[in-house]
Amino acid sequence: KQEVTQIPAALSVPEGENLVLNCSFTDSAIYNLQWFRQDPGKGLTSLLLIQSSQREQTSGRLNASLDKSSGRSTLYIAASQPGDSATYLCAVKTASGGSYIPTFGRGTSLIVHP
Amino acid sequence: EPEVTQTPSHQVTQMGQEVILRCVPISNHLYFYWYRQILGQKVEFLVSFYNNEISEKSEIFDDQFSVERPDGSNFTLKIRSTKLEDSAMYFCASSTEQDTQYFGPGTRLTVL
Predict the structure, then answer these.
(1) A18 min Cα distance to partner chain B (Å)
(2) What residue in B sits closest to A4 (Cα-Cα)?
């Protein structure tokens, strides 16, 4: 059974810092990995999707990498802003026996203070 | 920009009652999903739906749950006899192929 772990659980940083959020998974037979942000009481917003054949994806100040062999993904946020404050979730879609079930981590709660 | 919508935003029901949660996915999407998030817990996958049938379901999605696409736009989740532990946020999502999923704002279900 796939297990997804996100470290750290919480992070508080001053504005302008570059950040690295970590996601690890136990079963490397993944189909894709998706990073989301979740604002309090709201739904999830997709940030980046990495297919299993890809090593990284970039969107603006965000860069996500994937290393299947070590079971890790990182989300890099450059020049953080207060508007980046949210919970960041990693979701791994595992390809196992023809089944594609997504598994989420608990998330990293990020606060960027001015 | 097209978005996934969900109704109602908050549903309060008595234990044992049936509830139907409604979702309108993005119009050109073909894959539809339901997730739930119990307060303070992880987001959990319930079910995926493609071509008018369930394509995947988790252990959570037992006989008390069902999904339906009654017309060309709506996608519903029915819980037949609600339990206290069904209290959670329920999120609908949709995607094209097996691709980026777009989530709705959620329905908060409270079972008393």
Answers:
(1) 25
(2) B42
- CA nearest neighbour of B48 among B81, B16, B92, B108: B92
- In this prediction, residue A98 carries a pLDDT of 67
How far lies B12's CA from each of A43, A85, A87, A107, B27, in Å? 19, 30, 26, 27, 29
Interchain CB contact of B43 with A (< 8 Å): yes
Let me know: does B83 contact B19? Beta carbons within 8 Å: no
Rounded (10°) CA dihedral B80, B85, B88, B94: -50
Residue A99 scores a pLDDT above 80: no
Model pLDDT for residues B66-85, shown as the tens digit of each residue: 999 988 789 999 999 999 99
Per-position pLDDT tens, chain B of length 112: 789 999 999 999 999 999 999 999 999 899 999 999 999 899 999 999 998 899 999 999 999 999 999 887 899 999 999 999 999 999 999 998 767 889 999 999 999 9
Confirm if B101 and B95 have CB atoms less than 8 A apart: yes
Strands A56-59 and A44-51: unpaired
Query: What would the two tokens of residue A20 be?
Result: 């690295």
Nearest to B106 among A43, A103, A107 (CB): A43
| DSSP designation for B73 | S
**DSSP at B78:** E
Do A61 and A21 form a contact (C-beta atoms < 8 A)?
Answer: no
